[in-house]
Specification:
The protein is mainly α and 65 residues long. The protein has helices spanning 14-27, 31-44, 46-54.
Length: 65
């Protein structure tokens, strides 16, 4: 899969991103790694997919977060 990428943009919750960035910086873990690994696991792991689909603890602010 290396070398085959799709440039995209998404809107993310600002405060959530700031918190992620603070934690991830210390661990050298990027948003790109999180998204790619999360999508892969979402497609392969039914329990993970269900937990993500049913997760409802985010603050909705006029969008479909």
């Amino acid at each position: 899969m290396k070398g085959v990428t799709k440039l995209t943009s998404v809107k993310i919750i600002t405060d959530l991103y700031k918190r992620f960035k603070g934690v991830a910086l210390n661990e050298e873990f990027t948003l790109q790694k999180l998204v790619n690994r999360s999508m892969d696991k979402y497609l392969k792991d039914e329990e993970y997919k269900k937990s993500i689909t049913e997760y409802d603890e985010l603050q909705i602010s006029g969008s479909n977060f």
